Amino acid sequence: MSDNDAPASAYDMTHEDEALERRTLAVMVDNEPGVLARVVGLFSARGYNIESLTVAEVDASRHRSRITIVTSGTPHTLEQIEAQLLRLVPVGRVVDITKSKRGIERELALIKVAGTGERRIEALRLADIFRANVIDTTLESFVFELTGGSDKIDQFIALMQPLGLVEVSRTGVLSIKRGKEKG
Prior knowledge:
The protein is α+β, with helices and mostly antiparallel strands. It folds into two domains: about 5-95, ACT domain (Alpha-Beta Plaits); about 105-175, ACT-like. Chain A, domain 2 (Alpha-Beta Plaits), CATH 3.30.70. Helix content is about 30%, strand content about 40%. It contains four helices and nine strands; from the N terminus they run βαββαββαββαββ. It has helices at about 35-45, 75-85, 115-130, 150-165, and strands at about 20-30, 50-60, 65-75, 90-95, 105-115, 135, 140-150, 165-170, 175. A hairpin with a 3-residue loop joins β6 (about 135) and β7. α3 (about 115-130) runs antiparallel to α4 (about 150-165). It is elongated and about 55 Å long.
């Protein structure tokens, strides 16, 4: 195989007849220097894409952090990602939230919209429908805070585009499982 024939990424390798799936993985890790770099390095070294990444310490007494990663690939590629994550020493557990019927995913976004007159009124009307909170306002702009699924946030942003969308800041996906068990 020549260099021109080489696959562009891990997604192009074997199992190409399988459809791409989106997955949200919750990765519990030891909170120590370099852990995030090792996890991200695993993805980049193999040509896997990270669509969303959030990380925070969730158990200070045990020095544990939770990394939530949204990625896409064939089912085979996604299995490989999970297996490779589990081989990293500081990784304690990997949970595929997407596969769980009890999984919950949410994202937070701050959306700045500038406008006056009818555009301003329409932006406020839509914000009310989407249950977005106004967290800052001037005579010519708003900053809305919106929490929900990524699709909901995408829809709100698309509707704000013609009304004067200025800027968007998003947290990335957070996830958890319903019920009393750890996820």
